[in-house]
């Protein structure tokens, strides 16, 4: 079943349950996927759907950070609820230990030893963790391991 079909089914369920918050997020996800599909002019692959979902998650995490910095707890609470809905459609997230192992493997494969080789390591790591880990967390782990 495609992601759009899943979203349609979940949208119907949310409508019947009168779950306005989930319904709003599901509609936004569906719209983003359909917009991407229109841009491409063809059906999206699973990888492209994952890219769209990851972008939506990143936007919400960035918003959450900004709202917390500004002391807007009301908006932060709303964004946290949206994040929970988006997480249902993303693959299971990797633990910090799993990310560290992937980064360590990428560092040994690329032969990177200097912090200036950060881009090379990130280029090797990101395709492996796409949609399964927060880019900021991966970024921090790569920097930490390269600075040892």
UniProtKB/TrEMBL annotation:
Entry's Gene Ontology molecular function annotations: carbon-nitrogen ligase activity, with glutamine as amido-N-donor
The cross-references to InterPro entries, in alphabetical order and at most eight, read: Asn/Gln_tRNA_amidoTrase-B-like (IPR003789), GatB_Yqey_C_2 (IPR023168), YqeY/Aim41 (IPR019004), YqeY/Aim41_N (IPR042184)
A Pfam family assignment? YqeY
Which protein is depicted?
Aspartyl-tRNA amidotransferase subunit B
Native source organism of the sequence: Enterococcus saigonensis
